[in-house]
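HUMAN: Would you supply a protein with fold tokens?

ASSISTANT:
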Amino acid sequence: MCGIFGYVGSRTATPILLDGLRTLEYRGYDSAGIYIPGHALIKAVGPIDNLAAKITTAIPGTSGIAHTRWATHGAPTEANAHPHTDMSGAIGIAHNGIIENFRELREGLVVQGIKFESETDTEVLAKLIGTFYSGNLLEAVKHALINVRGTYGIAVISKYKPDEIVAARMGSPIVLGIAADGNFVASDPSALLVHTKDVVYLNDGECALISKNKYQVFTLRGKKLDKTPEKVQWNVEAVQKQGYEHFMLKEIFEAPEVIVNSTRGRLLVGKGRVKLGGLESKLKALSNLKRLMIVGCGSAYYAGQVGRYMIEEYAGLPVEVELGSEYRYKKNLPDKNSAVLVVTQSGETADTIASLRSAKEQNLLTLGIVNVVGSTIARETDAGVYNHAGPEVAVASTKAFISQLTVFVLLTVFLGRERGMTEAEGKQILKELDELPKVLEEYLKQTDKIKAVAKKYAKYTDAMFIGRKFHSPIASEGALKLKEVTYIHSEAFAGGELKHGSIALLDKDFPVIALAPQDDVYKKIISNIEEVKARKAPVLAISTEGDMTIADLADDVLYIPKVHPILQPIITTVPLQLLAYYVGVEKGLNVDRPRNLAKSVTVE
């Protein structure tokens, strides 16, 4: 969570900082602020536009730091907004993360006569850095961080030497941007694309000294490190709306392109095989696996649940799926023939990183499905697969989820061909996967029915999603999308579980969205829909084209193309995403920036 942006160079800093914050607003939008050393500390509650409105005159200065906040410690108020300063007001800090021992540190600082103006853990860190400052900001930051327990990605600057920024990382992402007319620091490479594609990622326990013409990277103990810039593969156009009203809508309509990018160079259709270069070095170990544990949070967790059905059914490998926030704390019994596969869009999800490190401590083989090259999980797993979905700006995950499902299909065939899947079955799956982008392109040309249905269902305050087998976790993902962007209370259940308690909720004002493609459990979900109708609850069914039975049973039907069963969840997801989007728009909500949420969950 939280967005950090800093610049030191030859241009006026303020407009650069504001533009940088706007590209990072998906990381938090409770409040925002900028600090131009020696000139201004300006903060505002709410979105970046509120901050920009307070800057009524040009602010001199060619360096500064900025922050957009997702509140953890302290309410979203102007006093709690970042940046925070030390006691003198000369040293400013922008921070992403949580300082776990801030109370003890604060008590010690209060004894020294230091006063506080906010409720935040970050102000404690700012004041602590100030107590260590004696002319060298880098040394002051390093001394302060040695006393800190918790997570941080920070950018620090002072009026004493405004041509330098100190950055440091422990558990929260920090990336440096290297450009011709100055250098940058940010919490996400997407914010740097308009300026440079040359970046340097900091690892945990590293800090950097950044000036206009150079950068240096050190360990907190002072060892100098040689880190050369990497190239970001994304283009700046990828983080722009390109004519769409919202990023969420743009990213939903990018689904066909996402599948193409996620499969490019990986489909060996004629052989019924998949080429996953990032896993080939571990092929022998993967072929001998007895158990695979998939770990994720939020949408990635639901993608993992779909992946479990795919891998167990088509590759014959037992799979367990765990929430990252729980796996890291439970007693996990290691097995030399087990592997842990972590799934995350950002590669920086705190609970997933902790789960990965727990697995590594047990000497388990660790794998990753990650979208962001250079992210923590991409660097720390033993092997993995990149999504290549491109940047996702809207807070609610859409195209990344589609890519995760696509990669699970690839992984299933990759493992399956080593574990008894026939060449003919591999060919059939990959042939249809190769054709899937065109199928989706055609489907996305005719979505007016979804918009019309959304107007009807926007009036409800509750909703229930049901599905069976592959579509049980897709129901959960649909419910998550609806609650995220519309604030409608929504729940999801495997269809067969309705009669075990949750059916008590249903009445004429509690609609049910039933996922009912014509697959091998179609008759079972039809029985569940009958149970729903008997309780007079409205039913919106999503079924495959040509299904006339469902039309007589449901109040509304959204038809989708029928594809191979392993691919059907990908298709079914799209109308659920569009339903959530159009309901949110109908309710007049900011679907790109839902309340209380942030894109990358880098706090625990």
Summary: The chain is about 35% helix and 25% strand. Residues 241-440 form a domain with the Rossmann fold fold (CATH 3.40.50.10490). The mean pLDDT is 92. The first strand starts at residue 3 and ends at 9.
